[in-house]
Amino acid sequence: MNQNLPKVGVAAIILKDNKVLLGKRINAHGAGTWQFPGGHLEFYESLKDCAIREVKEETDMNINLLSDNPVVVTNDFFEKDNKHYITLFMLAEHINGEPKITEPDRCLGWEWFSWENLPNNLMTPIMNLIKQGYNPFSKK
């Protein structure tokens, strides 16, 4: 694969009790930052299936996607890591389960945050999402 091409990431914005779920990344690009559950879109995989799969793999939780389509897209540059991603954000609601650390080599822990009280050290895609003015709780 050509390393100079952007990769496609799918992130799930999971809503529960007026909060969103974020995980603190370790041992990967963006280490030390908070990000939504998500990962790489696989070949011939639908966006919906990718979001559901990644959330299950990373948190062992079940979600219901509120749309088959992304609610917002960001163009993300990780210059320090020489990476470029197009991130597709899928909006979901929590169905059941508490977030578990299923990939302890990649995630330090999961926490629920209100949109008005997000941690300071957010991963680039979330910072770009906020710069666009997106709020998963606004009724636009």
List keywords for this structure.
Nucleoside Triphosphate Pyrophosphohydrolase; 8-stranded mixed β-sheet; 140 residues; alpha+beta; globular
What does this structure look like?
With 140 residues, this protein is of the alpha+beta class. Strands 1, 2, 3, 4, 5, 6, 7 and 8 form an 8-stranded mixed β-sheet that branches. It has a single domain (7-131), classed as Nucleoside Triphosphate Pyrophosphohydrolase (Alpha-Beta Complex). The protein has 2 helices and 8 strands; from the N terminus they run ββββαββββα.
Q: Looking at this structure, what is the CATH superfamily?
A: Nucleoside Triphosphate Pyrophosphohydrolase
Tell me the CATH architecture.
Answer: Alpha-Beta Complex
- Quaternary class: single chain
Helical content band: 10-25%
What is the succession of H and E elements?
Answer: EEEEHEEEEH
Topology:
Layout: E1 7-16, E2 19-25, E3 34-35, E4 38-40, H1 47-59, E5 62-65, E6 72-78, E7 83-96, E8 107-113, H2 124-131
